[in-house]
């Protein structure tokens, strides 16, 4: 089914541009054209289809659903909804406060917010097409695991102590209200959407998401192509291929200043793995790039005190390092 | 004169929302005062979770996206 993209790249690079498949440039360019065209087509089709299905899901409904749930199950649900609910990262603060003022524990809210950048439909789709379903499943399980355990940990240390005072008060009020009755400002019964409305929504989503991620695909695949064509075969494997213990924390640290979304980083992952970087090290690098970024953390300062921010940051870095080590150990058995 | 607040943390969509409202208001000749509200506590108090959101006379009329020009015309008329 994906053969057509190989043909397209053959035709464009080898015939039209007259490059030889044996040159580095030809090889890198072929890889670039094939991957970019494949990813673009997949993105447009899949974002549309997925958006049709989830047109009626939004953060308001997730909040109403999570409010007043029992805790143990709450983390799993919070993380799961984080993976499938669409929302722009510029809305993280209003979402955090919306959940908090509905009395939802900080840990469950954070399970939602931590999982959200790591897993989304675009990321899953790219992973499936570039690295196969096994790796995708692994990625989803690990991503949700980080969100869930991070959330549990934050509640264990009673992280709400270190919220900014207005947010802490909102949480208290929310808990009181929750005990008296069901959520005060419920968004009403689920409205039934007609197909035309769903189509409108899906069209809008496709345009918007594609508009946001297309350049990341170019950057990501471009980097991947450069790795593919110009880093000598076996270089990564012979230098980092044994999964030396320090390579994992090094990869996590390297990922902090690099900021990308999952869409841009996945094509790079593909090249790193194909070039022989161990899976754990690759995962650690990519998760750190996607989820631990300074701009996002500065935003969270509006609702959290420095102390909680520092703890959160440390938790994430430790989690990604552990993920890397565990996967490097397990690789021989996968 | 209507006071219109655009709620949002200053992301590009919120800025566009404020611009488009100002533009439509000028077109239909409505007198408006467009204010950008970026304070998270204020946004929370309106119960808004998806930004950009639009508040007219303290009522939330829209949230989660850049409103369409038609919608804006409708708000300005009433």
UniProtKB/TrEMBL annotation, chain A:
<feature type="transmembrane region" description="Helical">
    <location>
        <begin position="39"/>
        <end position="57"/>
    </location>
</feature>
<comment type="similarity">
    <text>Belongs to the UPF0718 family.</text>
</comment>
<feature type="transmembrane region" description="Helical">
    <location>
        <begin position="137"/>
        <end position="154"/>
    </location>
</feature>
<keyword id="KW-0812">Transmembrane</keyword>
<feature type="transmembrane region" description="Helical">
    <location>
        <begin position="272"/>
        <end position="294"/>
    </location>
</feature>
<dbReference type="InterPro" id="IPR005524">
    <property type="entry name" value="DUF318"/>
</dbReference>
<keyword id="KW-1133">Transmembrane helix</keyword>
<feature type="transmembrane region" description="Helical">
    <location>
        <begin position="213"/>
        <end position="231"/>
    </location>
</feature>
<dbReference type="GO" id="GO:0005886">
    <property type="term" value="C:plasma membrane"/>
</dbReference>
<feature type="transmembrane region" description="Helical">
    <location>
        <begin position="306"/>
        <end position="330"/>
    </location>
</feature>
<keyword id="KW-1003">Cell membrane</keyword>
<dbReference type="Pfam" id="PF03773">
    <property type="entry name" value="ArsP_1"/>
</dbReference>
<dbReference type="InterPro" id="IPR053166">
    <property type="entry name" value="UPF0718_permease"/>
</dbReference>
<protein>
    <recommendedName>
        <fullName>Permease</fullName>
    </recommendedName>
</protein>
<keyword id="KW-0472">Membrane</keyword>
<feature type="transmembrane region" description="Helical">
    <location>
        <begin position="243"/>
        <end position="260"/>
    </location>
</feature>
From TrEMBL, chain B:
<dbReference type="InterPro" id="IPR005243">
    <property type="entry name" value="THIRX-like_proc"/>
</dbReference>
<dbReference type="InterPro" id="IPR012336">
    <property type="entry name" value="Thioredoxin-like_fold"/>
</dbReference>
<feature type="active site" description="Nucleophile">
    <location>
        <position position="11"/>
    </location>
</feature>
<dbReference type="InterPro" id="IPR036249">
    <property type="entry name" value="Thioredoxin-like_sf"/>
</dbReference>
<keyword id="KW-1015">Disulfide bond</keyword>
<protein>
    <submittedName>
        <fullName>Small redox-active disulfide protein 2</fullName>
    </submittedName>
</protein>
<feature type="domain" description="Thioredoxin-like fold">
    <location>
        <begin position="3"/>
        <end position="77"/>
    </location>
</feature>
<feature type="disulfide bond" description="Redox-active">
    <location>
        <begin position="11"/>
        <end position="14"/>
    </location>
</feature>
<keyword id="KW-0676">Redox-active center</keyword>
<feature type="active site" description="Nucleophile">
    <location>
        <position position="14"/>
    </location>
</feature>
<dbReference type="Pfam" id="PF13192">
    <property type="entry name" value="Thioredoxin_3"/>
</dbReference>
